[in-house]
Amino acid sequence: MDNLRNEILRYLETNSRVNLGELAVLLGVDEVKVANEIADMEKEKIICGYHTLIDWDKAGVETVTALIEVRVTPQRNQGFDRIAERIYNYPEVHAVYLISGGYDLLVTLEGKTLKEVSRFVSEKLSPIESVISTATYFILKKYKDHGTILVPKKESERMLVTP
């Protein structure tokens, strides 16, 4: 059963809008079995949600995406969890990861302007008692996101030579 679950998960990760009948045919199992497995994985929080990847630039919506490295002092008996929870509860925060290296947490967020993102860092993130330092990086262009290539492939720039 684990193999079936893994195959379902791999397919859903790249195409969450798949027709269950088509997926059942691809996997060689009954559609009811696929539907039950998906329902069980949703209950078990293996499947945590479904998302649509949007190219906001093409939609004409101006957004600024930032990656913020955060160095913190872990709290006794709670490590990084309490600080991470405080940060991920801000609505503008898209993700918080515990990372290795020179910083402890990686925070991703979106805002309407550079100033809005900078204000979040200076007014909400930096004043948190356990935060020691931050480093902010702004995304200038997305080439690939969540496994999806966002830039069109260029046609070959070679000139066609004919005799």
From TrEMBL:
GO terms for biological process: response to amino acid. GO terms for molecular function: sequence-specific DNA binding. It comes from Faecalicatena orotica. GO terms for cellular component: cytosol. Keywords: DNA-binding. It comes from the Bacteria. This is DNA-binding Lrp family transcriptional regulator. The keyword Electron transport does not apply. Residues 68-141 form the Transcription regulator AsnC/Lrp ligand binding domain.
